[in-house]
Amino acid sequence: MYQKIGAATAAGVTGGLAYTGVSVLWLVLAGFALLAAGLALRRIVPVLKRRSTGH
Questions:
Q1: Does 9 reside within a domain?
Q2: Which residues are CB-contacts of 27 (< 8 A; sequence separation ≥ 6)?
Q3: Does a structural domain hold residue 18?
């Protein structure tokens, strides 16, 4: 019963993305880019805090 609902939802989302012209590959690449940018900022922020305190 529930497996049919999940399959229909997955098919609807995939079909909706195809209808709008968005590829799942682009969504994965965008997610990876956002993750990489977030991790880079996380590495930079402590250095900026140390410089602003004068250490």
A1: no
A2: 17
A3: no
Instruction: Identify the domain containing residue 53 by its residue range.
Output: 23-55
Q: Flag whether 29 is in a domain.
A: yes
Whether the Cβ atoms of residue 32 and residue 39 lie closer than 8 Å to each other: no
**pLDDT score, position 49:** 76
Amino acid at 3: Q
pTM beyond 0.70: no
The 8 Å CB, 24+ separation contacts for 35-43 are none
pLDDT in tens, 1-43: 455 665 666 666 666 655 667 788 888 999 999 999 999 999 9
